[in-house]
Amino acid sequence: MDRRTFLRQTAAAGATVTASGFLNCVSGFAAEPRARVALVRTSSRADGVKRAIALLKPSAFGGKDLFIKPNFNSSDPTPGSTHIDTLNVLVGELRQLGAGPMIIGDRSGMGVTRDVMAAKDIPALGRDLKVRVVVLDELPDSEWDPIRLSGMHWQRGFAFPRVARRAGAIVQTCCLKTHRFGGHFTLSLKNSVGFAAKQVPGDSYNYMTELHRSTNQRRMIAEINTAYQPAFVVMDAMQAFTTAGPDTGTLVEPQLMIAATDRVALDAVGVAILRQYGTTPDVSQGSIFQQEQIARAVELGIGVARPDLIDLVTDDQAGADAAATIRARLV
User: What is the CATH number of domain 35-330?
Assistant: First the structure.
């Protein structure tokens, strides 16, 4: 099957689903919200990001200033941290979609953030792309919002940066890997930990010490995601760590670029891929939606509640083959 034929048949199938959804609404049955996850098989990060965006056609960026949250937990090579090519092409594609001024910001967990960014050559990238670079843990106390919700597992809540909350939209780009320090895996939900303050200036309390010592760590990770709703998330699954992580681990190469707006759906797909290659007992056990990060995120209404509500969207036969394998592991 050539690509043109595949796209034509996919479009026809999409029209059928749309018509079915319309009939359900007319009959008085409200369909549960679904999540579309773009899945691109490729050998090029630039190609993968462009095709994933084309599949989902995000329209939320016109004229808006954007905050882009990469994974700069450390400066280790991808998937230890966001690949410079992924970030570069993502900024360019967002501009093509009409985005306004952009900020790239993060807080590192395994290293000094400014040093991590320097090692990744991010200041130079910012200059070249005319993007402002923000080191989150250098923000003053006035730039942090306390977040406290009923039923939260955080003792004092957590602090979230105002520079991100002021943005017209937030775009996130994460990696695919396991997490040996209690998170079990670090995908889009876990990448949000880099938003939260380790310490707020003037306050000696260490939020990250609380997180990593807590038996509720994975639930607390999900709770950080209540502070924002991303307009778009790109998961670089060209390479992945299936053991250890987040800085180093057993390396595999799925050669996939994945994107969504729903973090639960995206992480469920990521866990399915880790299981496909063989991963840690913690990530392998139970159903994917029983994983604590995902289960707590579902409780909080952050994303879809079940795997059958995830629609894998592809643009060629290689992607469709990968989607079929992932779908089997999702359910």
Answer: 3.40.50
